[in-house]
Amino acid sequence: MSNSLTLRCPAKLNLFLHIVGRREDGYHLLQSVFQLIDWCDVLTLKRISEAEIRRIDPIPGVPPEHDLVVRAARLLKDFCQVDHGVEIGLQKLIPMGAGLGGGSSDAASTLIGLNQLWDLRLDTHTLSQLGLKLGADVPFFIFGQNAFVEGVGEKLHAISLGTQDFVVIFPNQAVATAQIFQDPQLTRDHAPITIDGFLASPKSFQSNDCQAVAVRNCPEVKQALDWIRKAVPNSAPCMSGSGSSVFSALDPEADTANLENLLQNLPKGWMGRIVRGLNKNPAYNLVSSD
């Protein structure tokens, strides 16, 4: 068995996000479709004999107790009482605080990779239960395929989505998820839909109940939405998750060369790229490096 692995950790888009109710404990009930995309972080895991979790080049300003890959490794190590350790490297390409699920994807890939590297042989259900302790989106990335999502994010139904390109813009401004969901003006009574209803007319459901609140609290979200509307004629941009990234599907005939040129001249600090939807989480295509 290899002593190290390299894994690509994909981001995701919420093709829509509806809030259909609220539980007695205050958690919001959601409906969404999660689409994997090829905007990926790159995670490296190297098994070491010492019983330590070592993080190479930690993210500035993120202490170990808040670092999701460190927390995931510690959680799995304690759960399985593993004697050896791991050296973790992470090339962070997905922007943080963007509503693209980068941190959750990194944590999921850490669990997936260490399950193999440490030869633990846990099933995906067990990994998902552990992942839920790290964040509501982690089980989705362990699930590993596009999904119609319900409940508080724990009910995942596999869904087949056609190949699609998107333009995604991150306006370099994080939006606090807690602030969005605590806002008294947040829509919390969206009528539920069905998977069949979504598949019959996906474009009819391209809305995000968090978007109006985010636009009111973060002007950069509106600016990014307006940028896409101007750059991509006849587009219907939408925010992903609780923001602040926004995106739009691209027609097959879209002038991507011109759009790439426009993306080179985004406002200072913004990030943008054309991405392609994925059907599977590439973290399951484990790449041995030695």
Kindly list the characteristics that best describe this protein.
single chain; alpha+beta; 11 strands
Overview of this protein structure:
The chain is α+β, with helices and mostly antiparallel strands and 290 residues long. The model has no long low-confidence stretch (mean pLDDT 94). It has helices spanning 68-80, 102-117, 124-132, 138-143, 177-182, 195-200, 211-217, 219-231, 256-263, and strands at 4-22, 28-48, 53-55, 85-91, 147-151, 155-158, 165-170, 238-239, 246-250, 271-278, 287-288. The protein has one domain: Ribosomal Protein S5, domain 2 (2-Layer Sandwich), CATH 3.30.230. Helix content is 29%, strand content 28%. Strands 1, 2, 3, 4, 5, 6, 7, 8, 9, 10 and 11 form an eleven-stranded mixed β-sheet that branches. Helix 1 (68-80) packs parallel to helix 2 (102-117) and helix 7 (211-217) crosses helix 8 (219-231). Strand 3, helix 1 and strand 4 (85-91) form a beta-alpha-beta unit.
